[in-house]
Specification:
The strands form 2 sheets. The chain has a 7-stranded antiparallel beta sheet with strand order 8-7-10-11-1-2-12. It is rod-shaped and about 160 Å long. It contains 6 helices and 12 strands. A hairpin with a 2-residue loop joins strand 5 and strand 6. It is of the alpha+beta class and 305 residues long. Among the domains are: 136 residues, Tumour Suppressor Smad4; 76 residues, no CATH class. InterPro entries: FHA_dom, SMAD_FHA_dom_sf, YscD_cytoplasmic_dom.
């Protein structure tokens, strides 16, 4: 009988010792393994070790992270191992492996302590590894088996709710023809509303323009009427003492009464020229004061618009 001994020398399970007499045993984090490890870097089935013709071979499932005596193992390949080696499974977990056999003849054919080979016999490479139970030695840390549980929302209510009629929610399929019909109907109902809104908007804009124009014209008429009323103060009282600008103002008024706009504007321009002429008294101006000159100039500018 051949007995394999495993002693974990580093990692979360340091100090665990196991002995195996079965032909195949597995090491990993899943509960189905013969040796269960708590290292988070360990896969569910990390490595498998098999006995063939009195010799042991190891197979890594974890890529190139497994090392034997400092040498990295190829992934997914069976490799002969010596009768006493140190195996590193991860950055944390490392164990010492050794085995002894009652058949001394097999020892002569095994590789040395510091060497291993990959020429595993074909029948061993193709032979599937079966799940085995541990026969003796200390057991690793026990784990609770995960049991499926019914999951609910945090509020405790089921995710799927019944309708008011007591039936489960159902889907109703809409035909393409019905979709097009509904879209056409919706478009027909929307078009008159859009056109109506557009027409109302246009009419409102036109009304604002007309209102603004009418208001402007009304304001202008009021200003002109007020200017004609105020300019009467500059006509003078006696015709024998009328000044040149007063005669032009009177002529402009007569032209306005005849509806002779051209003559009216001519006489107002004459007065405007006299107001802007040089050589007038800088204190009394044309009308007797600068303030009166400025007001008369403003009134004439309103009448000439």
């Amino acid at each position: 009988m051949t007995t394999a001994k495993i002693q974990i020398i580093s990692g979360p399970n340091q100090g665990v010792n196991d002995e195996f007499t079965s032909d195949v045993f597995h090491i990993g984090s899943a509960e189905e393994n013969n040796l269960i490890l708590d290292d988070p870097e360990i896969l569910e089935q990390h490595v498998s070790i098999a006995l063939k013709e009195g010799r042991y071979a190891i197979r890594s499932q974890a890529g190139n992270s497994v090392e034997i005596n400092g040498t990295t193992l190829p992934a997914l390949e069976w490799v002969w191992i010596p009768n006493a080696v140190t195996v590193r499974l991860s950055t944390k977990t490392k164990f010492h492996f050794s085995f002894s056999s009652q058949n001394d003849d097999n020892k002569a054919d095994q590789p040395g302590k510091d060497e291993f080979a990959t020429n595993l016999p074909p029948d061993t490479e193709s032979q599937p590894l079966k799940k085995q139970k541990k026969t003796s030695g200390q057991s690793s840390k026990k784990r609770k088996r995960k049991v499926p549980r019914f999951r609910q929302e945090q509020s405790g209510e089921p995710l799927l709710k019944f309708g008011k009629d007591g039936q489960l929610p159902s889907l109703s399929l809409v035909q393409e023809g019905e979709k097009e019909k509904d879209a056409t109907k919706s478009s027909d109902e929307t078009s008159p509303l859009l056109y109506g809104a557009l027409i109302v908007s246009i009419l409102f804009s036109v009304a604002l323009i007309l209102l603004d124009t009418g208001t402007t014209k009304s304001t202008k008429k009021k200003e002109v009427a007020q200017a004609r009323k105020e300019i009467l103060d500059y006509y003078g009282q006696q015709e024998t003492t009328l000044l040149p600008y007063q005669r032009d103002l009177r002529q402009a008024r007569l032209a306005h009464s005849r509806k002779d706009k051209k003559s009216e504007r001519y006489h107002y321009r004459q007065v405007f020229s006299l107001l802007n002429a040089e050589g007038k008294n800088q204190f009394t101006g044309l009308t007797g004061s600068k303030a009166k000159d400025e007001k008369l100039q403003h009134l004439i500018s309103v009448l000439l618009r």
